[in-house]
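Deviations from the work plan: none for this task. Representative record:
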Amino acid sequence: MPAYLARRLVQSALILLGVSIITFLLLHFLPADPARMVAGRTASAAQVEQVRQQLGLDQPIWTQYGRYLWKLVQGDLGRSYLQRTQVTELIAARLPATALLMLGAILCELLIGVTLGAFAAARRGTAADQAVMVGALVFVSTPQFVIALTLLYVFAYWLGWFPIGGFGDFKHLVLPAVTLGLLGGGWYARVTRSSVIEVLRQDFVRTARAKGLDRWRIVLVHVLPNAALPVIAMIGIDIGYFMSGIVVVESVFGWPGIGQLTWQAIQQIDIPIIMGVTLVSACAIVLGNLIADLVAPFIDPRIKLR
Amino acid sequence: MKRLLASVSLAAMLVAAPAFAADIKQGGEMTVTFKDDLITLDPAIGYDWKNWSVIKSVFDGLMDYKPGTTELVPDLAESFEVSADGLTYTFKLRPGIKFHNGRAMTAADVKYSLERTCNPATQSPGAGYYGALKGFDEFQAGSATELAGVVAVDDSTVKIELSRPDSTLLHLLALNFSFVVPKEVVEAEGPDFGHKPVGTGAYKVTEWTSGQSITLERNTDYFKAGLPKLDKINFQIGQEPVVNLLRLQKGEIDIPGDGIPPAKFVEVMNDPTWKDLTIVTEQLHTGYVTMNVNVKPFDNVAVRQAVNMALNKERIVQIINNRAVPANQPLPPAMPGYDTSFKGYAYDVEGAKAKLKEAGLEGGFETDLYVANTDPQPRIAQAIQQDLAAIGIKANLKNLDQGNVIAAGGQKEGAPMIWSGGMAWIADFPDPSNFYTVILGCGGAVEGGWNWAWYCNPELDKRAEEANAMTDPAKSAERAAAWGKIFTDLMADAPWAPVFNEKAYVIHSARIQGPQGVFADPIHIPVNYDEVYATDAQ
Amino acid sequence: MNVWRGLLRRPLAMAGLVVALAFVVIAVFAPVIAPYAPEEQFFDGLTLEGSPLPPNERFLFGTDLLGRDLLSRMIYGARTSLIVGLLANGIALLIGTSVGITAGFLRGLPGAILMRSTDLVMAFPALILAITIAALKGPSLWLVVLVIALVNWGPIARVVFSETTSLAEREFIAAERAIGADTSRILFKHILPHLLPIIIVWGTLGISTTVLFEALLSYLGVGVQPPEPSWGNIVYDGQSYFQSAPWLVFFPGFAVALLALAVNLVGDALRDLLDPTLRGRH
């Protein structure tokens, strides 16, 4: 296990290095010129050139990357071109909100998805099963914006149960987390259902049934733990999605997450922010997958880490 | 000189004994929302419509505009004199002005601030405006350690010398880029000054949580008696305009800074309560299509004229819910020099086809139309595309983010056509020259420039220079007319197809009121923060 | 042939097949079926205030924000959306499944290499890639297919990998290995059928998400460019109007869900028909 972990961590570092090189190159080949965006409309060509030198953008690409990497290993992600603020500071200001929403959303997804999925699997082929399946498809096919705004309109504006967005206490978290729970719950429900059905067919379950054990008991005690693997893998995948893919939910609920920062930076070609956020979310994705792999043997003891 | 002095004394009276301010009590607070962060409040760097107005409330410059108008008045300066040749301006500073940190502001701070903006190390997007200051080039190149044209004669006197006459100088001293900052704070904070700003203005920034909120509190030492009206302004960042409108309707916020989202516009305007709380302002804005004169067939003037005649501007305005008026010349109607008698090119499909025939392009041609990808720009571009198709021009849309459209426009043969929306010129100051030099003059028609039509007419450049040299305020009407003629003459060459002048719609809660014009201020969007007051504090 | 007969006996699966084929027919014969040209902006297609028109006799699905016939746009939009939803998602499914099975079954060094490349692909800044290519090369539908396939195969590989690692250790596989069964036989006869359910989940829900994802790419300049329609960009453009003009979101959203549902019904039936443990029980 320690050897496996060490090996995985080294591999993860290499992956992050690869992501940083690729992103740096892609941004370099973008026609948009950051020096011009900083220098503004009134700047003469000479002024733009001066800005370019100050930002170090006149250097060969590998020199630029080398400098970036050297600062990166010292924990310095540079300063935003437009805001002039430390990128680490900007990201640090948003990570807690993102982490909190991630937690709340995954909880909702599991609650909605696993419950419905297990239920549908237990009632396989009935109308209830079909309803869950169609419901999952409908929610997955609805744009984030529509679900988010509908929930906000009904429960915050109309009924007044929750604040109309913002970041603060538990009440603020409920609606965005439920929105994401509904959006992603469909995936979890379908994955859980198929995985549970798969387990239900296995011999030990048949044996349990033959012994006359209670159906729900079988599902809860014997089947769900065995069906959990794909669900764990899903959570690992979700972590990456929550780092960048939920900007719409963030902006409907005024949730100060990392997605909004990313989106604004992409619009403004603010390279240090884009680099910083890409690396942070790459870290989250790689770690999410690593944890999913590490947890697997505990869920299914047959699996060995190698 | 007379006209300007008259307005100066009138304004001085207003400041000394504000007619409306007397009976309005200070106090209360308001909440303003924006979807995107304000980025920075550093006056040398902030350059978008959101932070522009906030910076004006945190900092001050030598000059300012009378609230609700485009009329220049001295601000940190008490008075000023201009030499006969128009090359030397001497400003007498108002006594007793303090920065938010308590230190008294002096002439040395004015000099420091202007030098800071002009210093390339600051990377100020406004530095280019101050090229007429004496010694600017040497200072920028680093061969001089100070800006020779700005002299602190004594603690309360600043002398500004120019290397060439520039009739826009007073406007430039009312621009945020010239606003006065305290050296010791700027040096202590370094690049973080933009998030921890200290100025002399009506409000001080007491809290900034990146991506969430900014709090402004009343500067009790502010030099204008009775201002500002509010104790506190809360800026809340990060929520969709649609949601912010709901919050306004629920009474949670006072001004949605991003205005009324298109999806809600018709609904709000049909609601009598909210219609009355919506104020419409003309902006110094023009939306236009550029045609790159280096790219065939736009090198042919008949083709450019044909495009002008092909556009159904009424219909384009209808698509954006009539939030604009059709335009026929580069200058917006609110700008001095706008020619009301000019007719431009009328919508005439047959005429446009005839023009194409004249150019030998009866069969039409294929080209590219670049457009920024934020709503409603792609929609407007599609309407333009359909109009062009009607005369046989097949324009393929290039729907890109703003940075890449700007990059294509700055290449000699990069973008045949660009719809300017979302990147278009909202004037930084109310002077017609602001619509020419960079976006239509020869100086902007360079690699990486902002003259996307690459139009360069040396004769018009010469006339522009002459108009700019008319510094005598007595001749300001003549100067405006000279400028107006430059723009209408330019339309004969049709490097642009002007499409519309957008109007600003500001909606606010009933709690927040202000003197006439405060919500329709041509300089402040969405509102002049110093002047609004809370009715519940009365 | 057994499969085909099996399908015929399942009315739901047949309905799904018919719907899916109908969409294909609609896409192929769009010019014949659509009442109007998809890019024609009608002067009376908007109210005087510039609002779109609700469904009426002339415009059965109403008009969009530019006064165009929504029905015609959806009929033409089916072309892009089917290519994206079926082809791009299908490619992702193929790559993801192959990588996941191989890595999960082989483990060891080849497995590690495969799964770390999966990590790399998942951490890859796909949107930045999209923006860069769009700015340099201009938009194309094949680029969309490429980007979607690139983005989507990683998660599929992860899930398939985790299922396979567990399956590979089961007794029946160990028994097969012990009797010296050939690897490809084990993969195709024993592991793949057990993975089918999870693959079907991705094959169906993935259709919905990729069709909507295409709209984001088109916004960034990668996908089909306006005025060319796709279901995704119709939803995307209209979503903030869903209260004042619900038809702009409802019709395309419904079409996306219906396509996914149809494929799902067919997929479920196929799974049952191919499943070794269930075969012959119906």
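Chain C has one domain: 70-274.
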